[in-house]
Amino acid sequence: MRIRPWVIVEAPDSRGLRRVTIGRGTAGSAWSKAELRRMLGRSGYPENMDLDDPASVSWRGGDSGTWPDRPWRRRTVMSLMTAGLLVSMVFGAVIGWPDASGALTFAQRITGVLFVLSGVVQGAAAIAALDHWGRRQFKASGAVVLLGAVIVLATDSLLLFLWLEEREYTHYLFFFMPLWCWSVWALVLLVREKAWRGTPQPRKFAAGVAATALLTAVSLAYSTMYQPAAAPMHFTLEAEFGKAWADRNLPYVHVPLTLRMKNTGGIPVYIINDIYTVRGRAPLYTRGEEDLATEWMRTVGGEGQQEGEAELYVDRLKYTTVSSGRFHDPGSSLDVGQEYSMKRVFQLPRDSRYDTVGVELQIAYMRKDRGKLDVEEFGFAHPTWNRNDRRYYCAPAICGEQIIHRGRVRHNNNLINMTRTPRYVTAVWSPGGRFISSISSLAFDYSGPGDYREERRELERYGAAKARTDAEVSMAELMGSAGI
Questions:
Q1: Which of 24, 112, 184, 433 could connect to 96 by a Cys-Cys bridge, CB 3.0–4.6 Å?
Q2: What is the C-alpha separation between 176 and 155, in angstroms, rounded?
Q3: Backbone dihedral angles phi then psi of residue 294, each to the nearest 5 degrees
């Protein structure tokens, strides 16, 4: 007669799992009587052994009919936990990888790497969920699942907060909104069952989670707010007339013009639009009998007159565009310290009645640390007089002759891209002096004015601005340099 039975089945734990001891060693755990029979069969016991025979099996905390496990509920919870963590893992990689691999600044790359690493943690949590709702061979599996759920809640709460600022439709809503609801459910369930129990040194684990959250928050704040605002933008624009020379065969004077541009700031930029315009000024001179204010009021009505210009002996100014063109290619970039220059030659009649000739150079740019422009799409020119391009066609009698460039722009913080509708940069140019640059989510059409408030907000968000310079020379000086 044996002193103790060979098989001992312990009382069920909180999940209904009963530990089985055969002889002097633990054979494993069983969820049901059928699973117990399979375990005994692997140990050499007959398939039809009497489990209720106290000489063979000792039952503690219940008999052979005490199996409180609810397999369908347990497996459903395990499946939902695993699926939610896996979807969030993929979503975290989608958020972080563009910044981790292509962001311009180090801080933005670090932010992207943190999101990718959070996706790795969520993948590990998905594996831990199988163990936590399984046999719990890894003691810290519940804490790992809890960490993954906290990361999902933090990430999707941030996305939800950013989305609420604009409330624009984006197909990513169908991911982060359900995931946010899932994370709330998962955290309530994990906290209720105290999933952190069994974790070695739980205080250090909690401190590590808090430190990771703080590092992520600081990195996001630095990359999205402080760093873009701290780096200033400076441009050096120069326009200079050279020595003119007379044409021996034609009654014209050739005037060289040199234009220069240099990025003297701390951030590379995209040049999204630019124009230079040379104008000749033909005034009607007076003897200056009146005071300057009275002369200015009469002068303002002149064609092309700028309201801020006043001269005592000049009346009724008229400006004529002599030459106009593009300075740089649309969508081209200008790195820190990089310089670009261009030389042009334009012609003036020897008997022209201009007293001065002036040039104005303007550029519109966008900071590369704020956004990434689709250069290939933006670089394609759309003439408005091309009837085959129906989207951009506009009758010359209405719009004149214009060239339009339009391309998608993506924010360098991919969180913004996930919570906003697509933005597009539009540049309108014509040699007559039309020079428009905008960033908007609106479709391009000629039906009327756009949402200027949105355009101003987007221009500021992407760090878009303009710079200009001008120069002026007297006609007498040009003719003198040409020997006339």
A1: 112
A2: 9
A3: -65, -40
Pairing of strands 57-59, 7-9: parallel
pTM of the model: 0.75
Task: For residue 379, give the nearest of 446, 429, 337 by alpha carbon.
Answer: 429
Query: Tell me, what amino acid is at 81?
Result: M
d(C-alpha 123, C-alpha 85), whole Å: 7
Each residue's pLDDT expressed in tens, for the chain with a length of 484 residues? 444 457 888 888 777 788 888 877 777 788 888 888 888 888 888 888 888 888 788 888 888 878 887 788 888 999 999 999 999 999 999 999 998 888 777 777 888 888 899 999 999 999 999 988 887 788 888 889 999 999 999 889 989 988 998 888 899 999 999 999 999 999 999 988 888 876 666 666 666 666 666 665 555 555 555 445 556 778 899 999 999 999 888 999 999 999 999 999 888 999 999 999 999 998 777 665 666 666 666 666 555 455 556 676 776 778 899 999 999 999 999 999 999 999 999 999 998 889 999 999 999 999 998 889 999 999 999 999 999 988 899 888 888 889 999 999 998 888 889 999 999 999 999 987 788 899 988 777 665 555 678 888 888 889 899 999 999 999 999 999 888 7
Task: Annotate 172-226 with three-state secondary structure.
Answer: CHHHHHHHHHHHHHHHHHHHHCCCCCCCCCHHHHHHHHHHHHHHHHHHHHHHHHH
Q: In terms of Cα–Cα distance, which of 60, 57, 59, 66 is closest to 31? A: 66
In sequence order, what are the residues at sequence separation of 6 or more whose Cβ sits closer than 8 angstroms to the Cβ of residue 291? Answer: 312
Taking the C-alpha atoms of residue 270 and residue 103, their distance in angstroms, rounded to an integer, is 15
Query: Are the C-beta atoms of residues 15 and 69 closer than 8 Å to each other?
Result: yes
CB 23 within 8 A of CB 72: no
- Per the CB < 8 A criterion, the answer to whether 330 and 378 are in contact is yes
Q: Which residue has the tokens 């003439």?
A: 383
Residue 263's H or E segment, with its range, is strand 252-263
Q: What is the CA radius of gyration of the chain?
A: 37
Look at the chain and count its residues.
484
Task: Report domain extents, the chain.
Answer: 7-59, 71-230, 235-481
CA dist 269 and 267 (Å) reads 6
CA nearest neighbour of 88 among 143, 158, 147, 155: 155
- The angle, 0 to 180 degrees and rounded to 10, between the axes of the packed helices 106-132 and 71-102 is 170
Q: Is 47 helix (H, G, I), strand (E, B) or coil?
A: coil
Contact 316, 297 (CB under 8 A): no
Phi, psi of 396 (to 5 degrees): -55, -30
